[in-house]
Write a structure and sequence with these properties.
The structure is a homodimer of 205-residue chains. In chain A, helix 2 crosses helix 6. The first copy, chain A, has 6 helices and 10 strands; from the N terminus they run E-E-E-E-H-E-H-E-E-E-H-H-E-H-E-H. The two termini of chain A are 19 Å apart. Chain A folds into 2 domains: 60 residues, ATPase, nucleotide binding domain (Nucleotidyltransferase, domain 5, 2-Layer Sandwich); 105 residues, 2-Layer Sandwich (Nucleotidyltransferase, domain 5). With 205 residues, chain A is α/β, with parallel strands linked by helices. In chain A, the strands form 2 sheets. A 5-stranded mixed beta sheet of chain A has the order 3-2-1-4-5, sandwiched between helices. A 5-stranded mixed beta sheet of chain A has the order 8-7-6-9-10, sandwiched between helices. At the A-B interface, strand 7, strand 8, helix 3 and helix 4 of A face strand 7, strand 8, helix 3 and helix 4 of B.
Chain lengths: 205, 205
């Protein structure tokens, strides 16, 4: 069985514990034999695999009463991976979602680290500086890079910590963010854990 | 005496309690007789008024040991207006600064409401939605507009409230933000109060 997360630019594959990432244009679905379970936000790719009998859309396993209809498919997958906790997926956006004893409680979306820095840079050349990830978020800043880093990260980290549940970090910036939390587990394959759990649940029904 | 805040696109004037805003290209400094005290981030304009004997740069009144060298002049002015409290200037960026018994403690810079919304929109067409200013920031969101609004505002508002000092809001979005705070005073002319206090202090020395 292969698990497959299809974005607009990349295809992320997970098979027998091994993960590989490809440019979506370099990926040929014919190369995968056996069952492929996928989530996709790429409409063109969906069209391409429509007639493949070994490709299964994990979207069809979702209990949509648990989530809201415009919720991103990746967010739903990481929620499915966690029975009770806060899930932070730090990519181009940072999504924060709360699961309470298997029930989705809602969440929120912050900008990703890169998009936040780009947005500051757009405001003024004086704010076109990199974040300082060595900064102490508990104190007020006394220079521009610290002022932006504290301004973006301190409220967010404190809000997440305040949710008071076990914390799961995933996504490209998970490891970078983890240093700011007193306790958090980084789980890089969380989306695939969620897909796997959902498929197993679905096939039991 | 006229007080004058010169930006890159606008000139904001304050004279005998009356405030007026002009496009910087429509403003002729010859129209002002008597003393003009100004702050400016507009290098071209500074060049233009260099030889005016009745224009005084308020920058020269600042005790730079109190602040950091790259700190925006507008931020310093609103800090000078407040002896003890948290000052939130909500414009293109949202600056948050702490004054403690006359001593600057530092601060931080968040994106402004418009720049945050634009940054979300750039991430994905699905996130190109307006903030919902009617949202309850204390609960997790269950739809996209609320998820963005809570994601941007809830951490920021909670961080500011947590600073535990009297709160002063100024800038174009001050009134809009004020609804989210349990107690805050909106002071639209705070920059001019700061300029006035600093000039009076300076002329006493």
């Amino acid at each position: 069985m292969t698990l497959c997360d299809i974005g607009n630019t990349t295809v992320d594959l997970f098979s027998e514990g091994v993960r590989s990432k490809l440019d979506v244009h370099d990926f040929n679905p014919d190369t995968l034999s056996g069952a492929v379970y996928y989530v996709s936000v790429n409409l063109a790719f969906n069209e391409k695999i429509r007639d493949y009998r070994n490709w299964y859309d994990v979207r069809e396993f979702i209990d949509w009463d648990k989530y809201y209809s415009t919720m991103g498919i990746d967010r739903i997958m990481v929620c499915e991976a966690v029975f009770d906790g806060v899930i932070v997926d730090a990519g181009s956006a940072i999504t924060v979602d709360v699961m309470d004893v298997g029930v989705y409680q809602g969440g929120f979306i912050s900008l990703g680290l890169r998009s936040a820095q780009e947005a500051y840079a757009r405001l003024s050349p004086a704010l076109d500086v990199s974040f300082n990830f060595e900064v102490d978020l508990t104190i007020m800043a006394q220079n521009t890079p610290d002022a932006l880093t504290v301004g973006f990260l301190a409220p967010l980290i404190e809000k997440i910590e305040g949710l008071g549940k076990p914390l799961y970090l995933t996504g490209g910036d998970a490891r970078l963010l983890s240093r700011f939390f007193t306790e958090a587990r980084v789980e890089e394959d969380l989306i695939f854990s969620g897909m796997k759990k959902l498929i197993e649940k679905g096939s039991k029904c």
